Amino acid sequence: MTDVMGRTAFITGGANGIGLGIARSLARSGAKLALADLDIGALERAKKELQHLTQVETYRLDVRDRAGYASVAAEAEKSLGPVSLLFNNAGVAPAIPVTKLSYELWDWSIGINLYGVINGTQIFLRSMLDRGDGGHIVNTAADAGLAMAAPGVLYCTAKYGVVGMTESMHAELKRLGIGMSVLCPGYVTTGIVQRSADAAPPPQAPLTNDQAQRASARLDQIDQRLQQGISIDSVGDLVLQGVRDNCLYIHTDRMMEEPILSRTAALIQALPSINQHHGQA
Predict the structure, then answer these.
(1) Which position among 103, 155, 160, 249 bears the catalytic label?
(2) Is 115 a catalytic residue?
(3) Which of 55, 91, 133, 221 has its CA 20 to 30 A from that of 32?
(4) ∠ CA 140-97-118 to the nearest 5 degrees?
């Protein structure tokens, strides 16, 4: 069991959405907070809200910038003490058709959703291990990291990577006293869809009027589903409990049960038979 009281937590994407929900739960439980985000206004609001509960420092950070990340990490630890709770939560949810992909879009999405997780882990893990006083890392993936789901290929590719990274590191780190969890949220009431659309590089070729209308309708549909989901505060409480219980998987609902079962069944069915495996007719 990982106790968060008195520990320093570093949360990327910590001023909006799920990151803010996690920050609220940790603040109520006595953790000190280092919140990193690109949204300066949201950082100011989050600090104003939470500073009466605990010590809070905020940092503007692009998680793709390794040198900038290392500098912010050092500054946070100087102000708040060693980070032993890491929440690699910053993410974007691009809904770009596969026919409109570009290297720029791949680099943007993978850079934030996957390399942001890698960068945070690489920066903080070594010192966690060297101190020997335990710790916990939570990587935010998505239900789209477990089976194909909206918004599509850019998102699923990165989130599958986050799930695989967390699963493979979990077994090794468990023996070394570091907890590892992957958060796979379903629909949560956040504004990530619109923020992602605003921040995304333009597609490889301009959309036709018809394509633009379909893309807008798709974004509206996804956003409507999100607004029917659970609150960011409920997710924060689930994450806190997952850290305390050292859970590998943290889910917010059962909406992906059937897609996961279908994918698993398809994988099993595609395996060669025992007779084929042994070269028998």
Answers:
(1) 155
(2) no
(3) 91
(4) 25
Q: What is the pLDDT confidence band of residue 94, given thresholds at 50, 70 and 90?
A: confident
Q: Which residue has the tokens 């420092």?
A: 57
Side-chain-side CA neighbours of residue 41 (13 Å): 0
Distance between CA 136 and CA 132 in Å, rounded? 12
Three-state DSSP string of 74-122 = HHHHHHHCCEEEEEECCCCCCCCCHHHCCHHHHHHHHHHHCHHHHHHHH
- The CA distance from 131 to 18, in Å, is 29
Measure the CA–CA gap between 79 and 113, rounded to whole angstroms. Answer: 27
C-beta separation of 239 from 138 below 8 A: yes
Question: C-alpha 43: how far from its chain's center?
Answer: 18
Report the alpha-carbon distance of residue 12 to residue 22 in Å, rounded.
10
What amino acid occupies position 33? L
What contacts 24+ positions apart, CB below 8 Å, involve 145-150? 145/182, 145/184, 146/184, 146/256, 146/259, 146/260, 146/263, 147/256, 147/259, 147/260, 147/262, 147/263, 148/259, 148/263, 149/256, 149/259, 150/95, 150/218, 150/222
Render pLDDT for 185-197 as a digit per residue (tens, 0 to 9): 988 888 777 787 7
In the prediction, which pLDDT does 216 show? 67
Residue 220 has pLDDT above 80, yes or no: no
Task: Give the helix/strand (H/E) hosting 162.
Answer: helix 153-174
